[in-house]
Amino acid sequence: MIDRYFEDVLNLDREGEECFDQAKYQAWLMLFDKRDSKKAQKEFRKFMQYEVQHENSNPA
Question: pTM (2 decimals)?
């Protein structure tokens, strides 16, 4: 748990996988009633790319 926290904070790459915010990922899994899997992680990354693009294009 603590190791994962520091990996997230430092944005360390674990086992060659792209890192992402675990809290957001867990919330996304719950929101869309999905189980943790490689496929769900890929879908989440795609979802977050879409969200970041729209966040950056809409200045507050």
Answer: 0.57
